[in-house]
Design goal:
The complex is a heterodimer of chains A (762) and B (236). Chain A contains 17 helices and eleven strands. By secondary structure, chain A is α+β, with helices and mostly antiparallel strands. Chain A starts with a helix and ends with a helix. Chain B is built from five helices and ten strands. Chain B has two domains: 107 residues, Helix Hairpins, CATH 1.10.287.90; 119 residues, Immunoglobulin-like (Sandwich). Helices cover 31% and strands 25% of the residues of chain B. At the A-B interface, helix 5, helix 9, helix 10, helix 11 and helix 12 of A face helix 1, helix 3, strand 1, helix 4 and strand 7 of B.
Chain lengths: 762, 236
């Protein structure tokens, strides 16, 4: 490409970007962008279903308070507001209010018909009679201690007097602090108590810093080196990892990063289980907002930063070896894809340091994700980080498609590729078609959140300026699930590949029905694009659309069934060696079968309507993603670790790891089906006390499952140091990665191999 | 019920008892799904166990003549007849399961028009409460005081509807997505801002009493607190 074409191209790009920017459908509903998080009135009372729009700064709320309060004393307080529509002194239906105190008791003044305290509640609000006023009096009795600061949360609703909650009504909220006489003189509220996640982060930071001091200090003492020398030593070790473009190094980086995020998100999962150990009140362990951030980060991290990197780590390491080439087609692009991963991940986690990580769930449904009720800027970080991860995956996909199509060694025809390579090939094709859609949807979401565009958020209901821009909140769900459903196949298909390799190798026979396995993989890939509607059975979408996706979803069971039957048929007539990788593979077949069966149950619309968004769904996808993907790839680690390091992994530790994982995985996730059938919705921070016993059982099992993974970490480190020598082909596999040395030489093969057919060997 | 029993005999929502008999196919589909799940699961587990017992590798087993060898693409192995069997059999099964899903689906989706119902309820979901109102001109029976008895207002996070009537819910949301879920009856419908969605119940199919309404679409901080009671009462 010469300079001139480049110039024209870049001008073209600029013009199209300018055009795109000018074509933004902007409006006034969120013209100020997203500002501090506000809360709607939780306990809205009769006649007060207003507050449909954003807070209006023009409504000014005042609460008269003495300088400070004394314990036990009762004070008469006055709340009034000004501003908003018809700011006149008299008339009907002019306003409403709401007040809640963090401590002490609020009460109406006796015989005052303007203020009421709904029974069972602690807040005050106006009565129907009281909504003709903009000023209200009531009493507040101070708590028994006066060494605290009491916060009053107030809302004022300025209405136009037409008797209907409508677009012209304005409201605002304000918080007032009231100091006890004995409260510490200067208390900066912003530097108050640390939230639980902050405490965890500080704890982990302290542990990490202490560990590095101990390790570096130990080295300085035992080797008698200066601090600089120790760092230089480490740098020498680190430098190749930071600058590598070798697919084997990048593969290991991916795998290690993936497992690191897997453990972080695993800890978040345990935090969730601790919150659900009993029905807790807000702030008992986590506040509800912290809980929401926790499950959002758990889901996002597990899918995008744990499962996918582990998969692409194995793919990076093994695909060039399995098809007999020296490296990926675009090694530098490969490195860039990798480095976008930790960077994007850190961006997503930035939310924790800025007052709360994203709390929109991994699905990020609008209009919640575009509303100011979601965490700011945590959710913006979540969106921005996701865009980076999307870019990373797209680049990876391009790289793999090119590599697999163009760089196969002699003899490796398409229909002679190992099934792991085939599964990755189908996966990256899905990725290439699905991820860009998600990335674009995220960019539109970011525009909605920061520039005030109305792709998803222009809901007529909440539109206060009278503009008629009504966008469809369901649009996001279509874009998300168009990506989101292939995404779940993106994480399960490679697991099928791993299982095919392991089961064939350890049965000492060729895979049964290689051709039908390949067709099954590609069929699943194609069908995955026409089933996404099954995530939206309850949205009120078109009945025909829902019926069609029910049928196509059911059809996925056919190729999946073929795969399971083929694995079992491979074992029949074989000579099954029960080493750790095989045990993990067989365990996966069992858990995945259960996950698949519940998938069919969920595909049936009448049942899905009952089960949708309950713990039954949570059980289903954990059976598929943990019982399928994670178990298969744990097996994959045991299987390919000898190739990657030249050392065998310890069998005894492996079997103990499997036993604990398998038993406590099922103990933790199987009862979730029952919890779901009993009606417990997912993403609930607290629940019906009748389900406490089951949830405690789940939590205990989940903790044991979590801690059992430490056996695996120990096994990896132990085997890396003390494992037996592996040799080139410890398991007697057939594919080309077993023909090179363990670990493979710098350029993967000393000379490019040729894949011969078994007939030629005879 | 003990924990173990709970795990074995899952605690079904009353939909399977009360609804099953009258709405076509509901009990049937649950039962069939259960049976086919067990058959499929057993097929896989038993076959795997059989393989592990019969074909376990023993020291000194001779290598099979199509055994694997590094660098050589193995012999093709397979049997088209068997493979077609286990393609067609699941295909028939899933078509059957889709077919039996149709009757209850038809029943669910056939939301009665407003003039065919005994009562139309306007449901409004907001962060984080449910508000309900009867259609204009509905004469609220005098004995509808269950909400007052528990200290709630009939219409805010609590509502009372007549037994033995066809009740249609017009569902709207004020701010973000919510979902209207009557737990024990198994009715679930998203509430979408700007779009009215519909659900309905024939209260003649369920027994009078107290039912729970949950929000099942994530809607922010107090999502798990967005609960309401629904009373189905015989009108006097």
């Amino acid at each position: 490409m010469n300079r001139r074409t480049l110039k024209i191209l870049s001008v073209g790009f600029l013009v199209s970007i300018l055009f795109a920017v000018s074509a933004f459908p902007t409006g006034d509903s969120v013209s100020s962008g997203i500002t501090g998080s506000t809360t709607s009135i939780v306990d809205a009372t009769e006649g007060c279903t207003c507050h449909t729009s954003d807070a209006t700064p023009g409504v000014i709320i005042a609460l008269n308070l003495p300088d400070n309060f004394t314990a036990g004393e009762t004070y008469t307080l006055t709340l009034n507001f000004s501003g908003g529509p018809n700011d006149a002194s008299e008339g009907d239906n002019r306003g409403g209010f709401f007040i809640r105190a963090s401590h002490g008791i609020l009460a109406p003044i006796e015989n005052d018909t303007h203020v009421q305290k709904p029974s069972g509640e602690s807040h005050l609000t106006h009565t129907t009679e009281g909504n003709d006023y903009r000023e209200w009096n009531f009493t507040w009795t101070a708590p028994e201690s006066d060494n605290i600061i009491v916060a009053f949360t107030t809302y004022g609703n300025s209405v136009n007097g037409d008797g209907n909650a409508g677009n012209e009504d304005r409201w605002n909220s304000a918080t007032f602090n009231f100091r006890g006489v004995n409260a510490a003189a200067v208390v900066d509220v912003d530097h108050g108590e640390l939230s639980t996640p902050q405490k965890l982060i500080y704890a982990f930071t302290i542990i990490a810093v202490t560990l590095s001091v101990v390790i570096i200090g130990n080295r300085m003492v035992t080797k008698e080196q200066s601090f600089e020398e120790v760092l230089k030593d480490y740098w020498k070790y680190l430098y190749p990892w930071l600058t590598t473009t070798d697919h084997k190094y990048i593969g290991i980086l991916y795998i290690v990063t993936g497992f690191a995020w897997f453990f972080i998100a695993g800890i978040l999962g345990l935090v969730i289980r601790w919150q659900l150990f009993e029905p807790r009140l807000d702030g008992d362990f986590l506040t509800y907002q912290e809980y929401n951030s926790t499950f959002t980060m758990h889901g996002t991290t597990m899918i995008f930063m744990a499962a996918m990197p582990i998969i692409f780590g194995f793919a990076n390491y093994l695909i060039p070896l399995q098809i007999g080439c020296r490296d990926m087609a675009f090694p530098r692009l490969n490195a860039m894809s990798y480095w976008l991963l930790p960077t994007g991940g850190i961006v997503i986690y930035m939310g924790y340091f800025t007052g709360g990580a994203g709390d929109v769930g991994w699905t990020g449904y609008v209009p919640y994700a575009t509303s100011e009720a979601s965490t700011v800027p945590g959710t913006d970080f979540w969106v921005a980080g996701q865009i980076m991860l999307g870019a990373s995956s797209t680049l990876t996909a391009i790289n793999f498609v090119t590599t697999i199509l163009r760089m196969r060694a002699p003899g490796v025809t398409l229909m002679r590729m190992p099934l792991f390579t085939w599964s990755i090939f189908v996966t990256v094709c899905l990725l290439l078609l699905a991820i860009p859609v998600f990335a674009i949807a995220l960019i539109l979401l970011l525009a909605d959140r920061t520039f005030g565009t109305l792709y998803f958020s222009g809901s007529c209901a909440g539109d206060l300026m009278g503009t008629t821009a009504c966008s469809d909140p369901i649009l996001w769900q279509h874009l998300f699930w168009y990506f989101g459903h292939p995404e779940v196949y993106i994480v399960i298909l490679p697991a099928f590949g791993v299982l095919s390799e392991i089961i064939s190798t350890f049965s000492r026979r060729p895979i049964f029905g290689y051709t039908s396995m390949v067709y099954a993989l590609t069929t699943i890939g194609v069908i995955s694009f026409v089933v996404y509607g099954h995530h939206m059975f309850t949205t009120g979408a078109d009945p025909l659309f829902r019926f069609v996706v029910m049928l196509t979803t059911m059809l996925v069971a056919v190729p999946t069934g073929i795969k399971i039957f083929n694995w079992l048929a491979t074992m029949t007539g074989g000579s099954i060696v029960t080493k750790t990788p095989m045990i993990f593979a067989l365990g996966t077949v069992i858990t995945f079968t259960i996950g698949g069966i519940t998938g069919i149950i969920l595909a049936s619309i009448p049942l899905d309507i009952a089960f949708h968004d309950t713990y039954f769904v949570v059980a289903h996808f954990h059976y598929v993603l943990v019982g399928g993907t994670i178990f298969a790839f744990l097996g994959g680690v045991y299987y390919w670790f000898p190739k990657m390091t030249g050392k065998m992994m310890n069998e005894t530790l492996g079997l103990i790891h499997f036993a604990f994982s398998f038993i406590f995985f099922n103990a933790a996730f199987y009862p979730m089906h029952n919890v779901g059938i009993s009606g417990m919705p997912r993403r609930y921070a607290t629940y019906d006390p009748a389900l406490t016993e089951m949830n405690q059982f789940i939590s205990v099992a989940a903790f044991i499952f979590g801690f059992a993974q430490l056996i695996f970490v120990y096994n990896v480190i132990y085997s890396y140091k003390y494992g037996e020598e592996a040799g080139d082909d410890p398991w007697d596999g057939w594919s080309l990665e077993w023909t090179t040395s363990s670990p493979p030489p710098h350029n993967s093969f000393t000379e490019i191999p040729t894949l011969k057919s078994a007939e030629e060997a005879e | 019920m003990s924990l173990l029993e709970d795990i074995i005999f899952s605690d079904n929502p009353s939909i399977w008892h009360d609804f099953g008999g009258t709405s076509p196919g509901y009990a049937g589909i649950t039962w069939q799904m259960m049976i086919w799940s067990i058959i499929t699961g057993l097929l896989v587990f038993v076959w795997m166990a059989y393989n592990l017992i019969m074909f376990k590798h023993k020291e000194g087993d001779p290598e099979h003549n199509d055994g694997l060898k590094a660098g050589f693409f193995p012999h093709e192995r397979g049997d088209p007849k068997i493979e077609i069997t286990w393609t067609v059999a699941p295909l028939i099964l899933v078509i059957w399961l889709t077919y039996i899903s149709l009757a209850p689906l038809d029943y669910l989706w056939d939301v009665p028009d407003e003039d065919e119902t005994d009562l139309v309820v306007e449901v409004v979901a907001g962060q984080w409460y449910w508000s309900f109102s009867y259609e204009d001109g509905y004469d609220v029976p005098a004995n509808f005081n269950s909400c007052a008895e528990i200290g709630e207002i009939n219409g805010l996070n609590c509502f009372e509807i007549p037994h033995d009537s066809i009740v249609r819910f017009n569902i709207n949301a004020l701010d973000v997505l919510h979902a209207f879920y009557i737990v024990e009856i198994g009715v679930k419908q998203d509430a979408v801002p700007g779009i009215e969605t519909l659900a309905w119940v024939d209260t003649g199919d369920v027994s009078p009493g107290e039912y729970n309404i949950y929000c099942t679409e994530y809607c922010g901080n107090s999502h798990s607190q967005m609960l309401a009671k629904l009373y189905i009462t015989v009108a006097e």
